[in-house]
Amino acid sequence: MGTTRGIVRGIMGPYEGYIRCCYQDWLKTQILAFAQLQDGQYHYSWLIDVPEMFNVRSPGKTCVCALIDSQPGSSQIAINTSKGCGGMLPVAPIGLYREASLRSDVPLDTIGAKTAELTHGHELGCMPAAAFVHIVDKITHEGMTIGQAVDDAITAIPELFPQCRHMGEFRAIMSRAAALAAAHHADEDDLAAIHALGSGWVAEETLAIAVYCALRYPIDFRKAVHAAVNHSGNSNATGAVTGSIVGASVGYSGIPRTFVDDLELRQVILTVADDLYHDCPEILVKSQYETITDKQAAWWETKYIGNTLHPRNW
Question: 3-state class of 45 per DSSP?
């Protein structure tokens, strides 16, 4: 959305501003029925035109309360003191996205942290989000193995956030996850290792458990996800993050069909993923006042600025 505006119209704001706007659309899907949407009311994403999105999916109270609040969270103004995993879970798609040249001087990892800050104010709610983005990005765009990407994140995140008071805690649990994955060789040891890392209710534990499971089974999506969900903690969160990391490594074709064939909103998910990865192409239209004549540019503008192109017409 932001990049499309920058390319098509030559003007854009911070990435996290657009993400917050889309979060507001998502909030409507959790508190309204599709039939309650008002005709003519502007929205920020074509996803709100998908009726199936309007199902209550146990949204985290922290996220909902933060989005209802008129003041978005940031590193300057923490909206709360939460380090729950809800701020980290939505950032995986950011790792799929890498313009040839980001339209700001903000690293991709930092966009992940700023996104988490919109709803979660604790440093340990935001640093794991940056690391999660970093891992997915390095696997997807640079061809790193999961192990290489995790090691790179453990090194890179402290350099990006040198003033964070809780950096020692973050590095310690990430290093512990990597060490446990290297030390355990029997499947029955997984549960004990996961419990040693925590329960996954807070972001650093969620990421650490996912990293452990991904490192244990880097090319076996099924085993990695099964290990990530078979514990007594926040298994849906740890399973989602594990699936994102291993899925980025093995690719869509490497995910067993049982996880894909009956996936709800599969085509919508694939469309968003493809658009993030390939991005709006660079074109010559640069003025916000210029009439759009390029057919491809007009298509992207309609889809990601006007938000009026219904998915059934693609």
Answer: coil
